[in-house]
Amino acid sequence: MNMDNGFFKNIEKKTGVNMKDIFDLANSLQNANFKDEKTVRGVIRRVSQIANKPVSKEMEDQIVRSIINDGKQLDFNTIANMMNKK
């Protein structure tokens, strides 16, 4: 995938999110063990950094629980949706 693609440049402009970070994150998610709390917390923190949206301790705990206990699929959209909910 070409990073200089206009589509990605537009997303970067609109969101202020670096698409390379997104792709790196997506790649790291492919082999991650989402039953492992430490892994899940690490991913949440990374997403929050990339999205420049701080996640409170309560929010992080909530996301971790829903992923580990409910077996929710963890992908960028899931986390983004959870972070956008107040």
Task: Count every beta strand, where a strand is a DSSP E run of 2 or more residues.
Answer: 0
What value does the Rg take, in angstroms? 13 Å
Distance between termini? 34 Å
Shape: globular
Query: Unreliable stretches, pLDDT < 50, 5 or more residues?
Result: none
Structural class: mainly alpha
Number of domains: 1
**Largest beta-sheet characterization:** none
Question: What can you see in these coordinates?
Answer:
With 86 residues, the chain is mainly α. It has one domain (6-84). It is built from five helices and no strands. The N and C termini lie far apart (34 Å). The relative contact order is 0.13.
Overview in brief:
With 86 residues, this protein is mainly α. The protein contains five helices and no strands.
